[in-house]
Amino acid sequence: MNTKRHLIIDPTPIGPITLIAEGDEIIAVYMEIHLHAPDPAEYGERVEHDPLLDEAARQLSEYFAGDRTEFDLPLHPIGTEFQQRVWRALCDIPFGHTWSYGELAAHIGSPTASRAVGLANGRNPISIVIPCHRVIGANGSMTGYGGGIERKRWLLSHESGAVADSLF
After folding, report:
1. Whether 91 is catalytic
2. What share of the chain is helix, strand, coil (3-state, %, to 5)?
3. Is the CA virtual torsion 29, 32, 33, 37 positive or negative?
């Protein structure tokens, strides 16, 4: 089994997205600007084609075209046990909906941990596929997003059906 990291760069309506796999699992989906991404030297080797990464790019294209609301990919985000719990719970937020950090904290059984949930949410390495963009402030505000607030706003508008074709 080849466990070497490899990547493709997928052009999308919100800018280029880097899809990274290790072996037969997706470990990262980074936007062009991604607050907590590691040094690109750690991403791995760029390849022209890879069945898993090509499938991930296809599913992202379907998402951006409005034809997909859930992803079906083997994921392996790298993080602490708590971060993993938060990231799994993010996948429970329905397409087109948002939860507050407090609601997400309550969902994982830690109702007083909204700040820790926010920190874990911000460290999500698999953007869009693990929908960290669906978490907002308790007052409905657009709080931080690793890919930038304008991308978060675009993604939420896209999911509500009220968005232009492209951010860039």
Report:
1. no
2. 35, 15, 50
3. positive
The DSSP H or E segment spanning 153 is helix 149-160
Catalytic residue chosen out of the listed positions 132, 135, 136, 156: 132
Q: pLDDT by residue (tens digit) across 106-164?
A: 999 999 999 999 999 999 999 999 999 999 988 888 887 888 899 999 999 999 886 55
Q: With CA atoms as reference, report the closest residue to 128 among 107, 103, 152.
A: 152
Helix (H, G, I), strand (E, B) or coil at 68: coil
Tokens of 10: 């997928």
Q: What is the pTM of this model?
A: 0.91
Question: What are the strands, taking DSSP E only, across 14-149?
Answer: 17-22, 25-31, 45-46, 99-100, 135-136
